[in-house]
Amino acid sequence: YPVCYAGHRAIDASIELAQIHPLSLTDIVSIDVLISDRHSKTLRYSKPKTASEARFSLEFFVASALSHNWVGLSDVDDANLTDETLQQLMAKITRRISEDMDPVLDGFARYDQVTVRLSDGQRLISAPVSRALGHAERPLDLAHIRTKFEDCLAYAGRSSDAEALFSAVATLADSTEGTLLSAPWVTGRGV
Fold this sequence. Notes:
The protein is of the alpha+beta class. It contains 8 helices and 4 strands.
């Protein structure tokens, strides 16, 4: 995601929750996000006013993830900060600081988790997320890589090139001719 890594696990938890339980955003009464103290302090902008601040806003990430099932480059834009639905969701978010720290990752809670309370009284709780999608212990699958690739091209105004470029890049790893991937600046040999 094109935002501070301190919020990636909360984004993953929000997206997963929204995919499992399709939400009517107007039915959401409150959103509770469990996160470490260090990450909460790093994500210092609860009411971001610019895209730069939004990149460090847990409230913005979670509201965007619940609204769109994604947080992409086009989401982190000054214009999106004025979206009324997003603003209403952001106002419903409360941070809860975890005292249960990850034994391996310094400054991380053991896991991040999102709980959504609905107007009918239901509480929807995400699975605990201990490693963000894309972490070495939880690598991206090809579908996620493609989504990120397409998001980058869309942001650059090159969506129409996505299929051809993705196919070309995907074949680089299979290349036995060793052109680009075996170049000295890639392998570190012979530089």
